[in-house]
Structure formats: C-alpha cells, structure tokens
Amino acid sequence: MAAKKILIILSDANSFPLHNTGTEGKTIQQPSGFFLMELAKPLQKILDSGYEVTFASPKGNEPKPDPNSESLLAFAGNFYERQRENDLIERMKKENGFTSPRKFGDLSDEELKGFSGVFIPGGHAPLADLGDNAELGRILDHFHSQHKPTAAICHGPYAFLSTKYGPKGQFAYKGYKLTSWSDAEEKFMETIFRGEVEKVESVLRENGAEMIEGPGEKIGNITIDREVVSGGNPMAADALGSKFLEMLKA
C-alpha cells in the first residue's frame, strides 16, 4: 500500500509569454504564478486528511503567486478567506519546503513509487515551463501508468503535454475527458492583458484529449475520467479537492 504522500507540481515561472502586443506585435512577459485559491483549497483538504505533501518544480525555485489571485476581487471581497489561504502558504514555507521545491530531475523513479497521487494547480505560469519539460513527462508517465489519482485545475492540465517529451514520447492522456481553463475564458483575459495567450483547451484537444467545456465549466463543474479529475477555474477548487481525496481513498 502506497504511503500517504502527495506530490504537488508547481512552475518556476513568475510570468508567461503574451504574444502580439502593442502596435509592433511584440511578445512580452506577463506577470503570473500559481493561482492562490486553486492551490490552497485542495491543499488544505489534502493536509486535513493526513497526507504529507512534497512540492516540486523544474528547477526548485521559490513559487510565486499570480498577482491577480491575491486581489480581493478574486475572493469576492472575502478578506478573511484570502488571509487564511495566505497563512496556509506561509505555513508551507516554514514546515513543508515550499520556498525550495524538489527539482523534477531529483525525484527518482523509485521515490515516485511512494506517492499516492499528484496535484497540479493553475495560474498562467504552467504555460511557461511545464508543457515541454521532459522530467515532468517522466513523472506524469509514472502516475498515469500506475493509475494513481491525478488532479489538475485551470491551466494545470497544460502540464499533461509534457508526457510527449517523457520516456514514452507520446501524449499519455489521448482520449481522456479533461476540463481546463477554456478558450472563451482565455479570450476574455486577452482583452485585459491586451495580447494573445496560448489556449490550453485548444492545444489539449489538438493532442487528442476530449475537452469537456461549456456552461458547467464556468460554474465550477469537474470532470472525472479514469485516474484523472480536472476542473476549469477557481470555482472548481473545492469540488476538485474533495473528489481527489475520494479517489485517493478508493
């Protein structure tokens, strides 16, 4: 029986490429990071259920929050909920090595056997350094081949593309029903960013995933297919965390 350990995949990036900006159509770096509530809500449920967490990223740099995710607007004005989630991250910095995640390359195949599941939160940062990371592809190939519970939310499913660069050289989630941050939501964000962003929904579909989007995704519905539970935006964070734990205990 696997130990009660969960691997949490994070990006090292504090920005992502924003294309076709300004009159000259330049590509610039738009500030980003992990989306606070998409990490904190499932993380709290994982910890409350007695699981030990290990944070990992490509190079082991300290993860940074997406500035938009720390605004009161993101929390619908709930100052106390924002404070609770920030306090949780501060606790992780003190107790769980959040400031210096494990490097993907330092996680051996043997060590991966000790994890019960893997969780990938969102924010735009995964667009910068997770989709083509060969070591992450190796890691996710392990969870996929062993049918271990796998949770990803918002832009987190973009990390699944890394399996194309892993040892098997193919997209492991072809034919899976997945939900991510939708093209429609991204197009709305483009009007705010004033540039173009790579579309997670489209690129996953182009690689063979069956994308489940529409009105349900907008209000936080989640999608479950085999070992994977996925959601499209912060409204899905609670349901995704609960279903992930249910799958871990099954």
UniProtKB/TrEMBL annotation:
The EC number of this protein is: 4.2.1.130
- Group of enzyme by EC: lyase
Family matches, as InterPro entries: Class_I_gatase-like, Prot/Nucl_acid_deglycase, ThiJ-like
Give a Gene Ontology cellular component term annotated to this protein. cytoplasm
Biological process (GO) annotations held by this record are: methylglyoxal catabolic process to D-lactate via S-lactoyl-glutathione
Q: Which Gene Ontology molecular function entries are recorded, alphabetically?
A: glyoxalase III activity
The record's catalysed reaction(s) read:
methylglyoxal + H2O = (R)-lactate + H(+)
Q: Which SUPFAM superfamilies match?
A: Class I glutamine amidotransferase-like
Q: What is this protein called?
A: D-lactate dehydratase
